[in-house]
Amino acid sequence: MKIYAFAFLVLLAIALRMIYKRYVPVYGIKKLDKMLLSEEITLIDVREYNEVYYTKDASVLHMPIPYLGRNYRDIPTKQVAIIASDRISRNVSIRELRKYGFQVIGFYCVAEREVMTKRVATSTCS
Known about the structure:
With about 130 residues, this protein is α/β, with parallel strands linked by helices.
């Protein structure tokens, strides 16, 4: 009986960690209204390849969430801003980048297939 209780507690801990990582908002990170174009800040678009529709822009680094862990060394600066399409992507990517020592200064919310421009981004994941 003790083994079942232990297994239950382990599974419960795993489930709670997954829920926390995905659904609990990251506090202290603000939604940005204007595009930041700076040498010290890298814009990282974490949307999937099939969700992105814009011309290649040198100021935006496109790196979907599954690639953050293997390619974080390719990010040129330690200060970053996130471009995400929903709350879950925003939360997971911010936590992942913080884990690798990046300072996330804010996020933009852009709908799927919406063109990311230098003007104000549309909010879909406040």
